[in-house]
Every structure is written in structure tokens, then in C-alpha cells.
Amino acid sequence: MRKPFIAGNWKMNMTAATGAALIKELAPLVANANCDVALCVPAILIPAMTEAAKGTNIKIGAENIHWAASGAYTGEISADMLKEYGVEYAIIGHSERRQYFGETDEMVNKRTLTALANGITPIVCVGETLEEREGGVTEKVLDKQLEIGLKDVEDVAKIVIAYEPVWAIGTGKTATDEQAQETIAYIRKKIGEIFCPKCAEKVVIQYGGSMNAKNCKGLMAQPDIDGGLIGGASLKLDFATIVNFDK
After folding, report:
1. CB-CB contact of 130 with 160 (8 Å)
2. CA separation for the pair 128, 39 (Å, rounded)
């Protein structure tokens, strides 16, 4: 059985004060969750949020990780920097990184391999744009993202995949339960082809397209959806409702 995993992605939001206040309020609400819980926060907030989450079941993750151990990579963050604060997860290849910062599947692969080599669980994001979905190339896009992004990975069960239909992020649109299930089932099938079917059954696959307190139960009821990568709703107490989707 795959354990559900709900992760928040704060993006470029919160301060040390507002973030710590939210974690203080969230902690008792999610203390008895039947799923893994994480908040992926801006790099500058990691020390303060690690301290705020101490003693709770909320893990702190990063929104990015670089493949080099150190060097002339202004604005990036290394695995050693993250490990120093006990970071357990790193979001890799988010659609916003791909869209605004030119992140490629090859870069996603290098970041993923570096995270794994350093004991950090990569949350690898894949997904299609509205144009790609309407053009009928969703599967082709996912194939490329998975084949290149997961190249040379030895144990795919150590990776979390987040399916984020780009057309449903921050737009208020959400894939129907059935659409999300159909595409995530395809992702699991493709992982089975790249690695092995049994391996694919072990991989936690999240839905990352505007999951919120209202639609989480229906999405989480789908057989291949194991959690959510939550954007806007992770910035408020609604996040606790999503974490407690089964109650």
C-alpha cells in the first residue's frame, strides 16, 4: 500500500513571521493525519520553518535544488545547504520553473539524481499545457518528461511524481476526478514500462492542479492518486482540511 502524501508549495509567499504563525495553527490540526505531510518553502525561510515545525509531523521541503555541490550558480541552492537544516523533500521541474526560468527535462534529471544521491526525496513535476492537451499530445509530452527526467534513476520508488496539468494551476480550473485519474494511471503505466510494473505500483503520484478543500475528497478517492502538491490552499488553514481528506 502506498502511503498518501500531501505537500504544500508556498511558492514566493510568506515571511518568517507569517509562516511560523501558520505552522503553529496547522500543527494541532494535522497531528493525527493518516498521510505524510510536508511544506515546501522558499529557501530563505527554511531555517525558520524547520524550527517552527520542530516536534510536529510536518516536514519541511525545498522548492528547488541544484545539481552542483557548489560553484558560480547565483541564486541556486545546493543539497548540502538543504541537508544542514534537515530538509527531506525538494520540488523539481515545477511548471513555473519550466515556464519562467527555462528549466528543461535534462536539468530536471540532473537535479533529481543529485537529490537522490543526497538522501532528499525529489518531488518531480510533470504535466501538459492547455495547448498540448487540446492538441492531443498529452501522452507524448508526459513520455518525454518521464523518460528524460528519470533517466539513470536506480530506484524509482524513492521518487514522488506530481502530475500538474499546467492549465489547472492558479487558474481555478481543475481536472475532473476522472481526467486526473486517467492521466495519473497513464503516468504509472509509463513508469512501469521504463522501470517495471511492480516498481510503478510503489511510486507515490500526487495531483498538483488546484487541489483544494472542496475537491480533495473526490480526487483522493481515485485509485492511482496518492496525494496532492498544494499551491494556494497551503497558505491557509484549508491545508489541514486537505491533509485530513479521509476524515
Report:
1. no
2. 24
This prediction has a pTM of: 0.96
Cα-Cα-Cα-Cα dihedral of 18, 23, 29, 32, to 10°?
170
Nearest to residue 60, comparing CAs of 86, 36, 83, 78? 86
> Rounded to whole angstroms, what are the CA distances from 182 to 138, 171, 207, 244?
11, 21, 12, 24
SS3 11: coil
C-alpha cell at 195: 522501470
Please name the residues in contact with 104: beta carbons below 8 A apart, sequence gap of 6 or more.
98
CA-to-CA distance for 35 and 216, rounded, in angstroms?
Answer: 13
Distance between CA atoms of 77 and 97, rounded to whole angstroms?
14
Average pLDDT (32-60) is 98
Contact by Cβ (8 Å): 222, 177: yes
Active centre residues (catalytic): 94, 164
Place of cell 495519473: 184
Of residues 135, 134, 126, the one with CA closest to residue 164:
126
Place of cell 522501470: 195
Percentage of the chain beyond pLDDT 70 is 98
Average pLDDT over residues 102-128: 98
Q: At what angle do helices 138-149 and 177-194 cross, to 10 degrees?
A: 40
Q: Which domains, from first to last, does the chain contain? A: 5-243 (3.20.20.70)
> Is residue 60 helix, strand or coil?
strand
| Nearest by Cα to 149 from 201, 89, 104 | 104
